[in-house]
Amino acid sequence: MNSLDINQIKEYLPHRYPMLLVDRVLDWESGKRITAIKNVTANEEFFNGHFPNKPVMPGVLMIEAMAQTAAILSFLTMGKKPDEKTLVYFLGIDGARFKRPVEPGDQLKMEVEITKVARGIWKYQARATVDGQLAVEGELMCTMRSTDDSAEK
Question: Catalytic positions (predicted)?
Answer without folding.
Answer: 50
